[in-house]
Batch of 4 targets.
Target 1
Amino acid sequence: MVFRSVGITIVFVTHDQEEALVMSDRIAVFNNGRIVQVAASSDVYEHPATAFVSTFVGTANVLDGEAAQRVLGRTGMFSLRPEKVLIDRMPDGEHVRSARGTVRNVEYLGPLTRFVVDVGGGCHLAVLEQNDSDKFTDVMARLGSEVTVAWHDSAVQAMS
């Protein structure tokens, strides 16, 4: 990137999260005039410190209270990015969690489809899937279907 070749510090202010992730070595996220997290762009996205950061920088499933206990088997507040959750496929490896649910909403976004899965107890998980070979009618046919959602435990981030 051109900015790195200059050898000086540049402060860039933006509300465009994608732009911030692409252009920055480090990001400072502010909430109500206070810094809530400063880290490398990948750390801000992958390891959000607070629920605000997890939903301000990208989108996230925020689970706490009864929802965290029901879905994760843990107490506290947690973030789980929608692209880290699979529908009707199990991730490879160990430490995999899953839940049964019903697809309540399907949003076809061109290269991606966003699903909202009701996993019970008033808890819904957003899931993003890449549309590799699915046609629009194929993804829409999943509306109302019973599915299994699964993710690696490492995709779950504890927050304050």
Note: The radius of gyration is 18 Å.
Target 2
Amino acid sequence: MSCDLRGASLVARAYAKINIGLEVLGRRPDGYHELRTILQTIDLHDEIRFYPREQGIELSTTDPSIPHDAANLAYVAARLFAERCESPPGIFIDLEKRIPPGMGLGGGSADAAATLLALNRLWSADIEPAELHEIAARIGMDVPFFLYGGTALAVGRGDEVYPLDLAPELP
């Protein structure tokens, strides 16, 4: 697939999520648990700036405890996306962390999904939603949800996502 630069830079927001309900239905043959959960994005978000560069992937964050390499899900997303391109352009990712890590809010997964969507646009790749979903599922269980956001039912390992039109009223 051909990937060419479309724009100079892009700013994206990666919104956190909460689990409205979580049902663990048992262990699957692949070692994961079968889940059923309703996920909801919330206003809390990371801000990510994407700057094209000649080649390679570079990532910086405002939180020194967050990895700047292949241990970071946004970096992983950029690498997996670049693997789909015949000769991928480079990208500098500047990640302003606002979602606290390790709190179950999905910050890393949200950053990965925002990276996939941003590179699809920046690199004029026009990857279909089903293929983006497949890449997202390789990164992590919550990542496919963040391609859609809003309210959704997630089943399986959490990677099967069904957007819902209901907006729950929560205090």
Note: The CA atoms of residues 1 and 85 lie 5 Å apart.
Target 3
Amino acid sequence: MGYATSPLPGQPAFGAVVTGLGSADIGDLAVAASLRELWVEAGVIVFRGLEQSRAMHVRLSRIFGTLINHEVIRDTPGQDPEVMDIVWTGEQEVYVVDGEERAAWLPWHSDLMYAVEINRGGILRPLKLPVHGGGDTGFIDRVTAWDKLPEDLKARIEGLSVIYASH
């Protein structure tokens, strides 16, 4: 295999770190299959040392499935609909979270919840992390979260549906 894996630090229940993956590895069908398998097993993969380019980001993303254009940017002139850039320009609203100011901050959410097809994942590619907070990003394993719910709560909500819509 063209890469190595290690556990995600501080996350004993899930996650993996991939190092040593190169551009040539992305086109290898066996590597692609093993990365998909790792993703299913680990739930979250952090890629370290990978070439930092938009093209590499899209190539890596395609290993995991067909890309879904994000509705927020689909009709934005000049914006690649396959990659959503979140950039701090100094003009966005600043939020206070746990007593700290945050910019370009998103609370807990699920990307593309409103899409017709289930969004199985997303790839984040930070180009510049803030000095304080380091671009903290949290993840949740919804299958494990469901499994840990009390049985009486599962029985009450089993079969309920939610309809999501973008604004």
Note: The beta strands are 4-7, 16-19, 45-48, 94-97, 100-103.
Target 4
Amino acid sequence: LANIGVWISGFATLAMMLHITADVALKYLLNQGVPATLEIVSTYYMVATVFLPIAALELSRTSIAVDVVYQYLPRPLQFFCMVMVYLTSVIVYLTLAWNSWGDALRAFQVGEVMMGGVSAVSVWPSRFVMPISLLVAGVVCLWHLILLFVSKEARDTLMMLQGPEVEVKEGV
């Protein structure tokens, strides 16, 4: 699911670029842009681009991390920190998913639309992207949390410092 989210996000980003380019080109060439561009970009493309890759970032552990203090802690405290980070992440992701799911259901029930110039744009389908993305990210963090306790190999990998090691050479 995480990889599918990345692919869909990439397609949404590409579609957004093409849509905006077409809108700008038509405004300058024909003095008439693509209808509802702002509404479609802000409610569909941007939401997909931002939220769908979150689970993949959690899965690959490539989100931003500041390890200034962590790297100097003894191993048991590092383990405690990782448990607290993943536990907090699970709670936050699932809470946000739950709250945004309720918002998505309300938008679906009323058939939420946004006025786009002269036409109405149905935006309720895009409201489900956020809760689904956050739910998957929460499940990934829960999986990492479980792995911390049940697998020594996974624990060693999960507790490594973030990012590649950089070799510093004298005189360079």
Note: The chain has a mean pLDDT of 88.
